[in-house]
Amino acid sequence: MDQCEDREEGVPPSKSTLCGEHESQTKAQRAYPGPQTNILGKRKTEEATSMRDKTFLPPKMQRPDEQNQPFESRQNVSDDSSCGSANNDSSEERPIDFTGQQHSAAERGQRSQSPVSSCVSMSSDWSKPHPPDFSNEPGPTLNFNHGPELTEERKRSGVCEEECLSCCALCQDVLNDPVSTSCGHWFCRQCICSYWDQSSSSGDSSCPQCGERSRSRAGLQTASQSSCVQTDVGLQEVLDEHKISLRRRCEHVTEGSDETGSRSLLNRIYTELYITEGQSEEVHTQHEVRQLETASKMDALHDAPIRCQDIFKALPDQQRPIRVVLTNGVAGVGKTFSVQKFTLDWAEGLENQHVSVVVLLSFRELNLIRDEQYSLLELLHVFHPTLQKVTAEKLAVSQLLFIFDGLDESRLSLDFTNRKLLSDVTQKSSVSQLLTNLIQGNLLPSALVWITSRPAAANQIPPTCVDRLTEVRGFTDAQKEEYFRRRFSDEELSSRIISHMKTSRSLHIMCSIPVFCWITATVLEHMLTTEQRGELPKTLTDMYSHFLLVQTKRKKNKYLEGHETSPQELTEADREVLLKLGRLAFEHLEKGNIMFYQEDLEQCGLDVIEASVYSGVCTEIFKRECVIFQKPVYCFVHLSIQEFLAAVYMFHCFTNRKTEVLEDFPGKEYKESSLDVFLSGVMKKSLQSENGHLDLFVRFLHGLSLESNQRLLGGLLGQTEISPETIQKVINNLKEMNSDKICPDRSINIFHCLMEMNDLSLFQEIQEFMKSENRSEKELSEIQCSALAFMLQMSEEVLDEFDLQKYNTSERGRLRLIPAVRNCRKARLAECGLSKTHFEVVASALKSKPSHLTELDMSNNNLQDSGVKLLCAGLESPNCRLKTLRLNCCGLLKISSDFLAAALKSNPSHLRELDLNKNKLQDSGVKHLCGFLASPGCGLEILRLSLCDLSERSCEALSSGLSSRSSNLRQLDLSNNNLKDSGVKNLSEGLKSPHCTLETLSLSGCLITEEGCTSLASALSFNPSHLRELDLSYNHPGDSGMKLLSAGLKDPGWRLDTLRVEPAGVRWLRPGLRKYSCQLTVDTNTVNTNLQLSDNNRKVTDVEEVQSYPDHPDRFDYFYQLLCRNGLTGRCYWEVEWRGKVYISVSYRSIRRKGDGNDCWFGGNNHSWSLYCSDDGPCRVWHNNKVRSILFSSSSSSSSSVSNRAAVYVDCPAGTLSFYRVSSDTLIHLHTFNTTFTQTLYPGFRVWPPGSSVSLC
């Protein structure tokens, strides 16, 4: 779609002002004839609104005088034209012209004779919204004096440069941001602008010094520009021509698909986009509509919007200059319009005049030369012919800005690890290498670079290369309303449309994208103002079905002279072409393509003329007439249009049994299936997508099965009768869909499919659940959990606490609830069997903007090092506000400490508590963590490292951390590590430091004797001001150690008020947990009669013969179980060997003995806990009839020394129960229960089936 309109030299575009201001002219001013005269209109300030985004309609790029030519004839344009391309992100939407203005033939004729013809291509965000023109007033015109006249005037002025740069002619002070008028006099920019503002009522913009009229603010020159002109008049002429070219290229956008060629001034329809620093960092493994849903509830108060013109201006707290900017935004949100606005303001001399040359390039254009070799200088000359005379020498000393638009459309291989360095702008290389070297700063180190992209493609640019990351958010709720109010002059109509939009959450969310606002406006205006009556669309499928009919009908009215037909007849007449478009849409949706070339259309049987006629659906985005740009490129107005047509095509293939298509998708087994089975297969296929690219497609597919949409699109979908029973089967299949091993974010799409089918039962059930007071009693199905996760995530109210264990559902259902973590302050995710996909969701919650999470407990999940790495991506985000992190028993190794320390160092100021108990971090891991303790800004106050396999060597690093000036540590738990006296001696050196602020220190079970106690007493005497609590239980302090520490308790100089030394004794000097070993004795009165005792009652075997045990009320009569006599207190440890299948358990003695209910078997109730083992190893743990699978690392499970021996460790006061598998040299942690024990615990066993046995070790 080519935009080829030439403007007379003296008729430049209107000038936009800030904050939505526009300039208008009086009649006299508009009539003023002088072509070289500046006519400065009086500024008309519109009331400031909250609307930061502009509704805009994408440009349709054709010459007005080409519109009635056949397609072939339009391919031959004058060779004298200058070809540029402003690429709008991947799919251009063409808005309708609501002004009704048309260009006369005379005007077109005048423009066509312009000496410098500009043939420009402006491709929009692959889904670019086309906003309507909101103003019926003609835009203001500002006359510029460019080229030779500019330099001649300066010559005539005779003003000496040295003289003019001394002081401002207005304030008489030293020049601040000096600029010169065309006559050569110098002023502070603020002074001259203020002067002209005050005199703007008369339209006067003359020089205050000599009275000569200036050419407006666009003609103001900086010192560097003035110097450039005086030293190289020819270069300045080139740059002036370049500005003229870019101005022509960007000043107009084309609106509408039915009125081709109607175009509006960008400055008239542009509203400041809502651009923010950073981005709402979601894990981009989900459809962009889901990202919109998350963004739709963000509090705008958390973000400081940035004007696109200020994209390179550093904030006050930013130290380094901004050279590379990466701007993200979903399709159609306005990235390319932002680029155009920036470029236009620069070309008009309004903004960023420190930049000498703006080089606008699109990846869509660069794709066409990706296999060729160019130098950077040649690249500029090819894409911007106006810069042909710019030499390499001039390029090196100029301030350049390269804008690369549409990274998501790139087919280049951007390899930033390639070591080929380029520093010469004349050196030829591949386009990819030119770009990477330019971005990295090897080529033209002073050049600025701006890249736009959709979120999923942004990771192609390494974060280390980006100085500023920004995001274009789209419309806020207020901006959505303003769009419709400005779109329609009929207030009643706009109010009805706004009211209807708010009734449907999916429609309301989608309206964050300006293009969808246009779609909504198009459909609802048609339905509310024509004879077409009926229920207004409530779902996305409804809306797009109506949109397709409206657009097709408009095409018919235009090309067939307004012949009226019914919607069904219209669709039938266009059926063949639309289905070809559907095929194109589907085949390329599967491949992830959003752009198509002529051969792609031809493969689907589409004629390019047909495609151009259907401009509201598929449109030619750009056609370049230069040698390398012979191929036109096509794309849909928005990705959602492509997805909808793909769904229409797929439904047609199903109803018409196109077996060759169905065999490929969803698969051979579905080519003869019923509708419910077919849709189930497609749903499963979509859930397997890694990035959710089929999510909206499958939602549309389900929506098309409804009778209402069948009636609308019957001619396209094919003749089929779908019974209510079939629809109910489809609904039931969705509700019972198994999404095992699927990211829980993806499961939410099942809920959306139900909504598209107008099944509101699930939505209503969850609404009732959220209102109920006894939530824990109601059992939730898996699909209810998905719906609840979505509604909790989207709720305006932030949950104070989100505890997965409090929801009455299955383990799978609990995992589907994970996405709700994004909207809570405290997340309790312990013992939930989380996997990689869940860690990614949690990381996205930490990265989201704003992030609400302040407390996160992921204990007893098998994170391992890979999971920690994912989590750290969230911890290092500047959006992360986490204060408490618990990773107790997560299978972490020393490498995990490296990841954690690096992430926490990069964002150290928030975390206050870190629990890493029961992870094999070892000494080297703790050393890295201590580096974090010593880092500036570290605010950590509580660190727990119990049972982390530490030795005395770790204490040196800990001591260094404690004595660091930046240390704020108040509590340190090192219990159950083999620190010994030598380690305590090192640790005591840190306690002596005046910088040490430690208040609580736990060294329980650390193999400490009186020597270690002496070191501690010495340290506390040296620095007695902080430590208040010291735990030395389960050590051997000896009499002398006890006396030293007890004396300290009485010393008024010490702050120590709590000292624990009992139990104490030499028995506690055994390394590891085996120091807590206890001897178990079977309680024979509890043994089931099918269990045989042997080996002095230390072995229990399940046998088929009933044993002759006396009756006893404590005996288990149904389950093959027994209890031991030993009541457990303090810390206890024991080991057992098993064969077959056994349950290794602990239980309160109050467990029921008679019957077969859950209250009788170990693990089936809240009185007992069990580890289930088979010959394959430990498999599951049970408590309160809830099972948890055991996952442990392959490195641990594959050890040849692993035996069928298990260990149990109980710390009764601490409320922890841990199960281990025993190898010859170590303990492999399996699972830990954290609770509060309310009764005395007893060991127990369940042995079944016959032949299974368990032996006490």
What does this structure look like?
One of its GO terms (cellular component) is cytoplasm. This is NACHT domain-containing protein. Its main location: cytoplasm. This protein has about 1250 residues and is an alpha/beta fold. The chain is built from 42 helices and 45 strands. It folds into 5 domains: about 240 residues, Rossmann fold (3-Layer(aba) Sandwich); about 200 residues, no CATH class; about 150 residues, Ribonuclease Inhibitor (Leucine-rich repeat, LRR (right-handed beta-alpha superhelix)); about 130 residues, Alpha-Beta Horseshoe (Leucine-rich repeat, LRR (right-handed beta-alpha superhelix)); about 180 residues, SPRY domain (Jelly Rolls, Sandwich). It has a 10-stranded parallel beta sheet with strand order 23-24-25-26-27-28-29-30-31-32, with helices on one face. A 7-stranded mixed beta sheet has the order 12-11-19-13-18-16-14. Strands 33-34-45-36-41-42-43 form a 7-stranded antiparallel beta sheet, with no helix packed on it. Helix 26 packs antiparallel against helix 27 and helix 39 runs parallel beside helix 40. The radius of gyration is 37 Å and the shape is globular.
